[in-house]
Request: fold
Amino acid sequence: MTQRRSQLTARLGALTMTACLIAAQAGAQGNAGGIPSAQDIWRHLPPLPGQAAAPEPQPAPEAPPAPRPERAAPVEPAPRT
Reply:
């Protein structure tokens, strides 16, 4: 009975450790800590011999400002007769 309990405890400990490692890895891949991604690292390395350098990504152009509505000419009241 004691041997069974120790085996169960060992298995639960290993399962808990595995779950913690998976959660830590998933959290690290979220890049919320400002750690550069693999693409960011590779972008700053020089190209390999015989390969052309990849162009750096350009930021998207800003949208032109929306046209301002034109003011209508003031309407003068009709003269009274």
